[in-house]
């Protein structure tokens, strides 16, 4: 996947595209892949990097949604459970089953949660990952040895999924390109084009060179997540707001706080939310919060009260309390929630997706969640075919292996490359030092960084350290220390000068500071 080649392709294309997708997060990438899987000529435009915003900042769970069982949203849970199965089937190098345990402090909670999770099992049908089980106190502590035993009477074990969100997003882009689509990062859309009052194209530009281009298409799809209303107002300046945005924050600590391959699920915090402790690449990800937000920054900042909340609640359940100085990284994401009357908090808003077609035939898809990205895309393209009058073709994504798909022997950070790992190993052997780690506390090599530039459209230091590798989220301090040498590698590969290199390091260090608790 080469950005320059893709830019040259859209510059030389004379015929209108079938589909233009605006937005390179989970939703937009899913739509673009569904479109090319049906044989439509497709281009995707992302203003920053793929998964720059919400789609790289999730809790890393591929799940049906236990919380939505409490809200009796069984249709959403059913859909998500079956999509979870497809994620694991189509990308086994990125998505896999994980055990979760709900600890209980009262004996009545065992049948209470147990019955609910048996219904959860039943909804998954053939996509089941295994039955839920009631555990004794001893069995619970065997799975989670650092769980606080005080007041513990047992636990409920159930199965859900886990994944690497940014890497899955990137894999969707790679698969789209493999099938002949054109996914482009750093190409902001400046305006929509209309003919006879109908949206039929966009004006965009290359964020690095400033070069402008006009693209025409049979339909334009707005799949911009938290920026949905910005694009809608390019079409209708006075369009009513569609979204309520909330912020979810996570903290990352060393895996020794919960040394297990099983996740912890706390069923109810002081504000009524679920809280997860997820093992991830040797670390423990704890989240999330739910704070309504008015502003929509591209780089949301965790609030002190969110960090305090996560430290306080997680420490209640562990034998070794977490201190602020133990936090390796803290990250926040914004959820695009569809507005609803009568919802007292954003945590009560449904994660069901919504498709809207404007009078000018701009199609908007928003809401939803990572686990249902594929079904959201299928529904979107089914509607797009009708709106644009495209020849009907069925989706090809239900059983489509994603780029690199293969069973991996472990869940190490480099397993996310799937079948590409052999090529990365060959690359590492071509030059002394490429097989060295970029930092003693990070699992990534210089060869992986070089691969991300050559083959995965990584263009900046942040692209490489935040989303191609997950260095920034795993250990922000270590990533800051690794930054100068990685920037030098990028500059050498892309032909940038020392000034560019210095600016990249300075920008990255400033950004990474926000991933450390104050």
State mean pLDDT (0 to 100 scale): 94
Report the CATH C-level class of the largest domain. Answer: Alpha Beta
Reported by name, the CATH topology of the largest domain is FAD/NAD(P)-binding domain
Q: How does the major sheet shape up? A: 10 strands, mixed
Number of helices: 16
Helix share bin:
25-40%
Strand tally is 18
Q: Which architecture name of the largest domain does CATH use?
A: 3-Layer(bba) Sandwich
The low-confidence runs, each spanning 5 or more residues with pLDDT under 50, are 342-348
N-to-C span: 39 Å
Q: Structural class, from secondary structure content? A: alpha+beta
CATH superfamily of the largest domain: FAD/NAD(P)-binding domain
Radius of gyration: 23 Å
Q: Rough shape?
A: globular
How many domain modules?
A: 3
Question: How much strand content do the residues show?
Answer: 15-25%
